[in-house]
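Good morning C.,

I know you're traveling, so I'll keep this short. The sequence:
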Amino acid sequence: MMKLVLILLVLFVAYNSKEQQQNNSETIINNVDSLAKYSYLIFGYNVLKHTSEGDSINFIIGTCFFVQDNDITFLVSAKHVLTGWNTDSSKKTIPYPDTLCIRLYDSQGNIIFVPIRIKRIKDTIKGGYGYSDPDVFVYKCEEVKNYKINSIKAFYNQNKDKYLRSISVYGYPFHESINHQNIEKFSNQKPILTEGIMISALSDKVLINRLNKTFLDTLNYHIKTNVSVSRQGYSGSPVFTKNKQNNQWLFYGIFSMEDKDYLGASIVKPNIVIQKIKERIHTTY
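The tokens, ready to paste straight into the viewer:
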């Protein structure tokens, strides 16, 4: 009888251990490449003029990600990507596309481009500079409800962990060879990894220069990155960092834009992004 009890106890512990491992499997990822699936390509374009030599176009490319709350899906990206409001100049980008497309996969694994109509958003949006108005926009995305998407919600981290300094970002850098006439090239474009280091002295409050004035930025982290490729297209990417104490990846904000002051990039802090997401969820129900 005692032997049977011990066997059952071992099986019970093994089952619970496996269940716990499954619950944590999304955030405990040893290979950084597994984070790539959370970054989605988003793009659009305006034809500025038609000529005999070809069309002159204004091409927009960025990155976005998704958060699922119950049965509702929210698309999240940089404000300047989803709305055309430039938080670097505090002005609307004109012209800007009325429709953006997100690259997804259908149930058979085929690549599809899902259109998101943003005309009403871009025509009514108002904002400010990125140091006072977060470069974040959250959109209730009913257009993707019939498709499988990867949500970053499991990676939420509300704590300010000062010892987390290395960040990883997957984004879609712009390539001059891709335009509206050879859009099929997007089918083969893969997200590219950028890694960066936060400078401890710049972690919480950063002095930045805008319009020949100095401002204190408390909304963004400022980082050094390890790549020299164009960062146009990384805007809106989810940023991750690994807590090496428990080997868990944590959501650490949104890649905003190139940082000319510190020769790196700025990312909107995770607590700011999560608050924006919660506010949008609250207004949905």
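Safe travels,
E.
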